[in-house]
Design a protein that fits this description.
Blueprint (H helix, E strand, L loop, with lengths): L4 E2 L7 E7 L3 H6 L3 H9 L9 E5 L5 E8 L20 E5 L4 H13 L16 E3 L6 H19 L7 H14 L3 E6 L2 H4 L3 H7 L7 E7 L6 E6 L1 E5 L8 H4 L7 H16 L4 E11 L11 E3 L5 E3 L7 H14 L4 E6 L3 H7 L4 E5 L2 H13 L4 E3 L17 E2 L8 H10 L8 E5 L3 E2 L9 E2 L4 H12 L2
Parallel strand pairs: 1-6, 2-4, 2-5, 5-6, 9-11, 9-14, 10-11, 13-17, 14-18, 15-16
Antiparallel strand pairs: 3-4, 7-8, 8-11, 12-13, 15-18, 19-20
Helix pairs in contact: 3-4, 4-9, 7-10, 9-14, 10-13, 12-14
The structure holds ligand BES and zinc ion (2 copies).
Ligand BES binds next to helix 11.
Length: about 450
């Protein structure tokens, strides 16, 4: 089931007539006077993405006029329609290729997502007959994964703490017969995840390391690490209230990891997949870790705590060390890591860090092709000295806030040794404003781009 997409035949549904922006005058010329008059009476301007209900002779809605520009189709092309057309069933009258049809249908469905777990939103949407050229399984895959990420992020921490996040991972693992191990609470010390424990121990819910493995042991190893800070108060270096308000989304990296894993497993990509999620709450309590503490990480690197609000890199570091141990072909991490990345590229672009030019080029190309924007920032080695510590191997926060996304990336890089290739995504995981197909709230970032890249690189 794909929300608001139907696999029925077109019979009885209302056609959406697609007219190219530059072709509009021509098209209008060929219409009966009734339509010409209607278009004029509505003062309709043929601009990309605009639509107009066209009347039949009996006064019913006979069809929808939809204007599309020459740039072609993308995932968001139809996204303004489902919420603005009268509820009902529609079909496209346009000659789309497979990728176009698949994406346009996905964008239609994605526009109908509503976070209604706690309240009946009473929203109606129009339904689209799946265009003939579309790959239905792929539409379902893109929509399901994106909505999964949105939902995990939107659910407030009271219902999406470390335990619930583990349960969400288990459900996905179960769906695809992936093996899952969870290292919980004091066991984190026994099994050497000391920084996951230190960051998460002040919470009423035990911190944990979720470790999921799927696929053929001999296939190329792709490992995804996601920051699962279910709530980030900032710890003892407490965030101000305005900055704390949205921090239920600080497990956005984990949501990306699970959603991307879902796509990979559902598509059956021939890779050996591993997903590692440190799931914690960065809380305040008598046993909270403190500014000035020195932690010994899983790798043995000692870390001076300059700021307990730079907790994401600590829990990621231990997970990255665990991932790195088995020398994956590709190590990907997703994290709502820094406010600085948001200052650098804004809230709607994923900031990306990697030393692998070919990997970046491949992902950037797919990001463009699937409209899931990424932009590279440098792992500028000369800034490594900004996170030097006098008492430990490294400090978890910079001596200056400048270049904060870069120093965070350099911190993570310290724990990547044996992986053949590594890429780090610093993401917002949230729409601050609504755009077609993308309501305000939790959002998937960069996972469609990475999925497209993995398909191209490893696809059977
Ligand atoms: N979760 C935050 C980063 C964040 C804030 C992401 C707002 C997206 C939007 C992270 O744990 C954090 O607090 N980082 C600090 C690091 C600093 C103390 C070195 C930051 O970015 O200010
Ligand atoms: Zn923080
Ligand atoms: Zn955080």
């Amino acid at each position: 089931m794909i929300p608001h997409i139907s696999s029925e035949t077109e019979a009885g549904s209302t056609p959406i007539t697609v007219v190219e922006e530059g072709d509009f005058e021509n098209w209008l010329e060929g219409q009966p006077d009734r339509i010409k008059g209607w278009v004029e009476a509505n003062d309709f301007k043929a601009k990309n993405g605009k639509h107009l209900l066209l009347p039949g002779e009996d006064g019913s809605v006979a069809s929808i006029l939809f204007i599309q520009n020459m740039d072609g189709w993308n995932i968001w092309s139809l996204s303004s329609l489902p919420g603005s057309l009268p509820a009902g069933v529609y079909h496209l009258e346009a000659d789309l290729k497979e990728k176009e049809a698949t994406e346009a249908a996905a964008g239609w469905s994605l526009a109908t997502y509503v976070f209604d777990r706690y309240k009946d939103m009473d929203k109606c949407f129009a339904t689209l007959i799946l265009p003939k050229a579309a790959d239905e399984a792929e539409v379902a895959r893109l929509v399901h994964a994106t909505n999964l990420a949105r939902e995990l992020i939107n659910i407030p921490t009271a219902d999406m703490g470390p335990r619930a996040l583990e349960a969400a991972a288990s459900q996905i693992a179960g769906e695809f017969e992936a093996r899952q191990t969870n290292v919980v609470g004091e066991d984190l010390l026994t099994y050497h995840y000391p920084m996951v424990h230190a960051v998460g121990r002040a919470s009423a819910e035990a911190p944990r390391l979720i470790d999921m493995v799927w696929g053929d042991a001999d296939a190329p190893k792709v490992t995804i690490v996601g920051k699962g800070v279910c709530f980030d108060t900032g710890g003892l270096d407490l965030k101000p209230s305005s900055a704390m308000l949205l921090m239920k989304k600080d497990m956005g990296g984990a949501a990306m990891a699970l959603a991307l894993a879902h796509m990979i497993m559902d598509a059956g990509l021939p890779v050996r997949l591993r997903v590692l999620i440190p799931a914690v709450e960065n809380a305040v309590s008598g046993n909270a870790y403190r500014p000035g503490d020195v932690l010994t990480s899983r790798s043995g690197t000692t870390v001076e705590i300059g700021n307990t609000d730079a907790e994401g890199r600590l829990v990621l570091a231990d997970a990255i060390t665990a991932a790195d141990d088995e020398e994956p072909d590709l190590l990907i991490d997703f994290a709502t890591l820094t406010g600085a990345a948001r200052v650098a590229v804004g809230t709607e672009i994923a900031a990306v860090f990697t030393d692998d030019d070919a990997l970046y080029d491949g992902i950037y190309r797919q990001a463009e092709a699937v409209k899931d924007p990424v932009w590279r920032l440098p792992l500028w080695d000369d800034y490594r000295s900004l996170i030097d510590s006098k008492v430990a191997d490294i400090n978890n926060s910079g001596s200056t806030g400048f270049g904060g996304a870069i120093t965070a990336g350099l911190f993570l890089k310290e724990f990547v040794e044996k992986s053949k290739s590594w890429i780090h995504f610093d993401i917002m995981a949230y729409n601050n404003r609504a755009r077609p197909g993308r309501p305000v709230g939790g959002e998937a970032f960069a996972i469609r781009a990475v999925y497209a890249y993995l398909k191209e690189r490893f696809g059977a």
